[in-house]
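_Full entry_
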Amino acid sequence: MLMTEKGEPEDKKVGFKERIYTLLKKDSRLWNEETKEFNDILLKDLIDKLDENILNLLLKNKEMKDKFFVKINDIFVLKQNELKFFIDENKLDNSYTQYRNQIGLRAGNTLLSERNETVLDWPFKDCVLEGGMTKEEEKDRKEVFFNEILAKDEIDRLFEPKVLINWKRYTANGEEKVKGFKRDADSTFRENLIIKGNNLIALHSLKELFNRKIKLIYIDVPFNTGNDSFRYNDRFNHSTWLTFMKNRLEIAFSLLKEEGIIFVHIDAREQAYLKVLMDNIFSRDNFLSNITLKSKAGGGVGQESFLFDVCEYILVYAKNKNLAKNNIKFIKTILNDKTKKVYNLILNNLGHEKHVSDIDGGNVGKIRVYTHEDYSVTKLPEQERTENNYYGYFEKIFRTTNPQGGLMQRVMPQISSKGLVSIEYIPTKGRSAGKKYRYYFLDGSLIVWLKDSAIKNEEEKRVYKLVKNDNLWIENLHQGIAKEGGVELKAGKKPEKLLKKIIEIATMPGDIILDYHIGCGTTCAVAHKLNRQYIGIEQLDYGKNDSLIRLKNVTKGDTTGISKEVNWKGGGNFIYLELAKWNEEAKERIFKAKNLKELEKLFVELCEQYFLDYNVKVKVFKEKTLKEENFKQLGLDKQKELFVEMLDMNQMYVSFSERNDKKYHFSKEDIALSEEFYKSKR
């Protein structure tokens, strides 16, 4: 028998594979103690990212340091490929039959069906995409990517809180100065906000103030179709678009409350890929639904599509599914004519009841039968089916239906088919054991009470029907929305009724709602009318169809959209503010230039006032490049693009830490309000 140096049998010696896995199990992200499973997939992802915890574990162990690191000038560099290769070839369960005797789609040595998670891989997954357009005309500008590993300092600076300027409060009476902010006793910020600026940077500026405070996020994202009006950038190919989404969804996740929910509106082109991306960020276990929304009428003769696409989709995720499910509400709608037509009977004078028999309920429970005397039933005439009558007769209004289900089939043969009869049912098993239920029958038909599927609003003196939620929304909500809110968009505008439905499912009055692609402002307009706090972020300039104009209309009593349904009369207020631009301002000036001469003149100011990328050779560009014939023949758009690329993209907006630098010329009011805004994080 072979022996070790210590005299132990070789087969009792712990192998290198076991030693490295024992070490890595110390990281709780990798080892699930309950299921005894090791997450090799996550480990490889952490290796790619040079995760600090993994590096420390390996470096502190001399054997691992010698095996997987190379020393260069007193610096230990991880041999990533060697470590990943070892992991691939030495999984905890490395049996031949598990990986060789089954046929199926594989990733490396692992069947996709055997993996506990789906990994979405794309070229830019370790990057941050600024996505910094302010006008749709910039759709051809080249996007800036920052690699998370190579540009960590730049990204940290990019995500620092920014100075906030141009504060204005809007009420029904017009524009006012912002003199302070409302906060709860626990310092929760209690103001409606409309923020103009890059949404990724704005979200990071909000992350400490609103961390785990947001109850609902709804976003109508750029669809990446190449021709929708909400396009951001026509160069958003598949990989770039996913990076754009990933960066923003990650910070959105941290802003959500533990019981919070996110609704992401998308079309068929990217829906499947977005689902996988959100599975990775929010976890597959927290997926709630994929809503199918009918958004347009069917196509006519001449449509080029194989099947004309009339649907859009809304992916719904919770931050914590178990907590969120307890907070999801039924949809509340007004009583329409169809509902009033079927609920038109009133039961009056429900008098003395008489116990007539007991029914053998078998193992389901106890059943007692009663008859009723001295009652009367009247039919509500069509002309009297008004809000006042439904409010007044709320407890008595009903309709009838044929009894369904096993319990009813057991009961029906043993009760009278004439007059008013009721049964008392007491289950003996299950969660409802011991509870009493009363069912009424009129002339052999089951009575269905309006009060069982509706609510009575005492403040408004009206009745609302509660609709059980499903994920097929085909009510043609998009019809007739062109002039909602007093703003018009040719495409991309979402109906107020759609947002009302979502907001009422997921929130209560006072909850905070976030939309960081607000466009013309539908989400915030509906939130305002429903007495929810909201934050809206937008970087595109929509001119006369801007969200600011729409929200001002709302405070003054906008009568469109859901206003009539919720009895909206105006009121409330919101605060408008902007991220303080610096190089962003320079970029806008570049895009406004009408010819090369204006660009050449602007270059002097770029060098003197703004921040250029450290790689730019100013003298060479000024004295040589600008004079070259090849540069002059590029065309104005390409010339502008090159000018923009010279800007330091970390300096597009001014960091809060630099608020007192005199070169920015910030007003005392803007500095004071920025400080007051961020005070809970200082």
Summary: The longest helix spans residues 238-255. Residues 1-13, 93-101, 227-234 have pLDDT under 50 and may be disordered.
